[in-house]
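Um, can you check?
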Amino acid sequence: MFQLALKNIRYYKGRSVTTFLLTFIAAYFFIIYVAFMNGSHSSMLKNALEVYTGSLQIYQKEYRSEGGYDYLIEDNRKLFSLLKETKGLKAYSSRLETYGIASYKEYSSAIMLTGVDFQKEAKLSELQKALTKGAYDSSGACLYMGEELAQKLHVTIGSEVSFVGSAVDYSFVAELFKICGLFKTGMYDFDTQSAFMNRGFFDTIFFSDNMSSYIVAMVEEMKENDKLAKEISRKLPPDLKVYTWKELMKSMVELMQMDSFFGYISMALFFLVIFFVIMIYGFINVSARIKELGILRSIGVSDRNISTLLLYEIVILTLAALFLAVPLGAYTAYYFEVHPIVIPGMSEMYRSYGVVSDEVPTLFEPFTVAWNSLLVFVLNLLSVVYPIVYVRSFTPVEAIRHV
């Protein structure tokens, strides 16, 4: 049957070439499409995590729901010792966030002022790379402020703004701070309300030594993030909780899932068209061969062998197409992962979604390429089911007399 299938493939050149090309196009573009979709999601996530969020954060259990100073972490050093013993963490640090009113002349705005260790933040986030003017790591009464917030207050490098808020002990805080640096991450909501201060001076004003709103950490390998989160969680006191990026950025996760859902719907429609085209070509080919197949059955070839013959034909054509499409698709996916496509201005257009890069990369994953190829293979096998059923509906005599 295998040899006969090869002979039939060479004889019915039109049907064979069409099936080969349709399978090649479907497999190649499916691999590329999924690689670009996963790559854009991975890039969006990477941008968002590296800008500020980190891959996991540790809070007092009530802090995220209640907020305020009543639920601060009160022993940073103890947690740092614990995290130091945890293998797989790239960096970690503490942050203490407070809210207040910043004013300059007749302009004022609510701001989130955060005390950070600038040297550790350089390993954790993109804040240093986001510097546009002035200095990043400054000591004393200096603010590292978002450009959008600076524009709202009409300030620039060297301007002095007044700040009114409250310390950790709820005492009144009124200070003058100097603008020493400006940053722009591209995330508008973040840039329009955020300012940072060296942790040493911050602790002096807000009486927050060894305290934090939360501890932020970044893992070396994202695939190990959930595992490390569970490991850290087991070591923590019962009043503390670890949140992974999936919980911290739930809206982005849902956005990516929705985008993937509609992406696969689009591909499903594409595959549906390819499937029916291949099936129709197969059906037309089989219909034209009813008499030929009837003669084979009349000389003793069983229905099972006829079905095997038709399956061999589609399997040979499919494997030949995949043999060319899979390496080519995998190489293309890998190439654009290493050399991403650059679309100038894209980050400005989508900055509210956390896109801070003009690059559009792919994500090369052998497992993804494998299941993409397997899906195409299975669909091609299904496309021959109806032609087989149709052929077997004829008796050998009816098939021989078929016109």
Summary: The radius of gyration is 31 Å. The first strand starts at residue 56 and ends at 60. The chain has a mean pLDDT of 83.
